[in-house]
Design brief:
The structure holds 2 protein chains of 2 kinds. Chain A has 7 helices and 7 strands, in the order ααααααβββββββα. Chain A is of the alpha+beta class. In chain A, strand 1 and strand 2 form a beta hairpin. Chain B has helices at residues 6-14, 21-47, 62-74, 76-86, 93-116, 126-130, 136-156, 160-169, 175-184, 192-225, 237-263, 272-303, 306-316, 321-339, 347-374, 394-417, 423-438. The radius of gyration of chain B is 23 Å and the shape is globular. Chain B has 17 helices and no strands. Chain B is mainly alpha-helical. The chains are: A alpha+beta, B mainly alpha. Chain A binds chain B through residues 7, 68-69, 254-258, 261-262, 265-266, 269, 272-273, 276-277, 279-280, 282-283, 286-287, 289-295, 297-298, and chain B through 130-134, 138-139, 142, 146, 149-150, 153, 157, 160, 186-189, 191, 193-194, 197-198, 200-201, 204-205, 208, 212, 215, 382.
Chain lengths: 299, 439
Amino acid sequence: MKSSFILIVVISLFGTFVKAQTPWVVPDDKKGLLAPIKFSDDTRKLGLEIYNKTCVSCHGHPGQPDQAKLVPPPADPASKVYQQNLDGELFYKITEGRGLMPSFKKMLKSEEIWNIISYVRTFNKEYVQKVGASDSSSGVKGKVTAKLNYTVKNNKIEVKVIQQINKMPINGAKLSLYAKRNFGWLPLDEIRSSNSLGIITFNYPNDLPGDKDGNVNVKINMANADGTEQTIIDTIIKTEVKRSQYNLLDNRTMWNVRSMAPIWLVLSYCGAVLAAWGVIFYIIWILLRIRKSGSETSN
Amino acid sequence: MDEKTKSGIIHDLLKSVKLNNGFYLWMAFLSVSLVFCLTAYYQQLTTGLGVTGLRDYISWGMYISNFVFFVASSLIGMLISSVLGLTGQKWITPITRMAEIIAFAFAAVAGLVIVSDMGRPERLLNVFIHGRFQSPILWDVTVVTTYVMISLLLFIVPMVPDLAIAYNNRTDLPKWQRLLYKLLSLNWVGSKEQKDLLHKAIRILLILVIPVALAIHTVTSWLFAVTPRAGWNSTIFGPYFVTGAFVTGVASVIIAMYVFRKIYHLQDYIKEIHFDKIGKLLVLVSLVYLYFNINEFLVPGYKMPKHESITLHSLFNGGHAIMFWFVQLAGLVIPIFLLLLKKFRKPTPLLIIGIFVFIGAWLKRYLIVVPTQEHPFLPIQNVPQSYTFYQPTFTEICITLASFILVLIIVSVLAKVFPLIPIQETIDERNNKTESHEE
């Protein structure tokens, strides 16, 4: 579901203007990035799961020629071209994307991407992992706490980010705002940087429907140095836009389940069946009478 | 010739009921072919529907076309016995039972054809357990079952007096056959009470079968017409299917008449006049069907709405054009013109025309079912090439052949074991005729 959705969006966005297949150059400072975790069977297992959910629709099953027919072609992870990427290069390509290759930085957490890499490396016998420094994944050093404030009046969301240890405001943290919808997280507003007081103000749309009480699940992500994002706030705000909880499946309709079939239809169906089979049984009864009458006559 | 005695008629019409070597040979041939074709079904059952040409986009192919064709052919029982019978057409007497046999055989096997389209046939009962009243599929299953039952009754009930005659006159038959006659003849002695009851039962059945037969094929058409897809999204699909069904059915009866007349030597009973009449009937039903075809294709063809034009062009001058024009011309227009001439309504030319109409009718169902699915609203993307078109596989063809063989088996057995031409009615009719002559 997810991957085919991405497929459609990505194809329609980029498919038209990416043509030439130039080598995909990863900036030098990103090439050397290393996984902060040691690859293990656990990470490989998690990686396999994510791969099968998110990547398989285009890249196929590693080692099998079932890649999607796109231009440029998505490489087989078991292939040499793919494996000769450094860990940092893989990470960069997966987070940033190019053309038909989607950018996964908003979709996947950095650990998840490392898990995928640990999985695809199982198709490279010569691969030996180098583990990187553990905190290299965060753009902001140390743990972060954040507070969110929503004011209904002017539809602004204000966020304040501070260091957890010393309660100092963080300057220049890059945050983005999302709202939860039926099919995933919808990005709202643009990526914004915190000021010297650690404060960021997002514009919140005034027409985004919440649930029947106007509640909306929003989250704030902070960008890491490696390009991925981490969620620092995931909360529910109460807005004024309420959705009328009118569920189409509450009524008896044609498209509903059997127990919610329109009454007239149930009656027509049952009536027709009863009528036809009633007559059939009546005929059988007549036949039995013919039989009986015959045996009486012959006696 | 008309002056045959009663015992002469009985003798003639009961001549065929004894199983003979020819029959055994024919059945052996059919059984062997059936077993061969069923190995294909075994393969499908164990491997899955992947052995067919059906894929995600074109998921209805030969089986469903064949199903529609079978349901269509089965409508003939209703046309001959009820519509013509109730309006007092006398010439149909010798072919009513034949029509009922064809109706029953096609309707019964139609149900099986549907099962052959299921990858998991053991889940068939789910249709009843979880079936939604809103779904034409449930209506279809219901009405097919009902129609099979009514056709069977329409075959047996009018035959009751004949079975008594057969029981009394053919003492030389094997035990099981005599027992069968005895059981089904319901102690028939021909008393007034029995005659009245029988008459009543037949009349009710003849009336009941009309709405049920209309329903069976209308519902089959709704399987398509309730989806808003190019080529199916039509308000006249119900009558279009029903009138098409009459064409198919009449063609099947023509073929059956010719064959049984030859092998059972029924020239004294199925005469040239019967061929002449049914030839005219074929013209009539074909004209009505042609009228619906013109509406079905000319109206959208005139407008050529964007989403329908792809399907329409594939029929008019695209990939399906040869089949389409063959069906329309050789299966409909040319037969109509030829049959207007008396000399083409003689048995042999009529048989040949009937065969063309029959084949055309089968292909027509294919053209209704398949091309629409090749052009879905959302473009077909990122799928293997083989998903974008439909080509029946050998397995599929074998399984479809199996259904035809099954129909042949049912028709052959019923037409052999039971008197094919109504005896009592023939006698009554000839009596009436001579009586009116004497007056």
